[in-house]
Structure formats: structure tokens, C-alpha cells
């Protein structure tokens, strides 16, 4: 499954300010059972808007990690709050099937 949120960098800060905190928190979160990686992307044409995608084996593993919050992760997230506002987008299942056009 995918856990997706949008990050809006506050005036006076840069995406790199948030990215440092994101990497540190992600390294800790990725130690949890079921964690399968994370991605952070800038929006084209708007370098102050980012999207973060965390990949998990399943929602149960994600919820278990959230149910036992890490003090270290909470401290990093609290510190990053001065850089940005975060908007949760949602949790998405992996597709059961994918249709792709034939190669030309």
C-alpha cells in the first residue's frame, strides 16, 4: 500500500530544509516491519510543494508502526513543522491489475 501526503514549504524556507528532516525520519521509519521505501518529489513549476510516498507491505504494518510512535521520529517531525505544512492525501492499495497500451 501507499501512504501519501503533500508538503507545502513555508515562506522563508526551502525544500532542502524539509528534505533533511524527512530523510532522518524516513531512515527510522523504514526499520519498521513492512516498510518498503519512501520517495519525496517536487511539484513541477512549484518547488515549494512536495509529495511524499511511503510504500508499505500492507495497511496493518503501517498502522502498527503508527500505533507505537517513535519518540525520535516525533521529535524530527515536530522540528520540521516550522518549515512546512503537511496535508494527508490518503492511503492507497496496490493495483490488482494494470492495463498498459502496447509498445509502438
In short:
With 104 residues, this protein is an alpha+beta fold. 33% of the residues lie in helices and 36% in strands.
Summarize the structure in words.
It contains three helices and four strands, in the order E-H-E-E-H-H-E. The protein is of the alpha+beta class and about 100 residues long. The model has no long low-confidence stretch (mean pLDDT about 95). Helix content is about 35%, strand content about 35%. It has helices at about 15-30, 60-65, 70-80, and strands spanning about 1-10, 35-45, 45-55, 85-90. Helix 1 runs antiparallel to helix 3 (about 70-80). It is flat. The protein has a four-stranded antiparallel β-sheet with strand order 2-3-1-4. The longest helix is centred in the first third of the chain and has 15 residues, at about 15-30. The chain has a single domain, classed as Alpha-Beta Plaits, CATH 3.30.70.100. It comes from marine sediment metagenome. InterPro entries: ABM_dom, Dimeric_a/b-barrel. This is ABM domain-containing protein. Pfam families: ABM.
Amino acid at each position: 500500500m501507499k501512504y501519501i501526503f503533500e508538503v507545502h514549504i513555508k515562506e522563508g524556507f526551502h525544500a532542502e530544509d524539509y528534505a533533511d528532516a524527512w530523510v532522518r525520519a524516513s531512515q527510522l521509519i523504514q526499520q519498521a516491519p513492512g516498510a518498503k521505501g519512501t520517495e519525496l518529489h517536487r511539484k513541477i513549476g512549484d518547488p515549494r510543494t512536495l509529495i511524499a510516498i511511503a510504500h508499505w507491505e500492507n495497511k496493518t504494518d503501517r498502522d502498527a508502526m503508527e500505533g507505537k510512535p517513535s519518540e525520535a521520529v516525533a521529535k524530527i517531525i515536530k522540528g520540521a513543522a516550522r518549515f512546512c505544512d503537511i496535508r494527508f492525501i490518503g492511503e492507497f492499495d496496490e493495483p490488482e491489475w494494470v492495463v498498459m497500451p502496447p509498445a509502438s
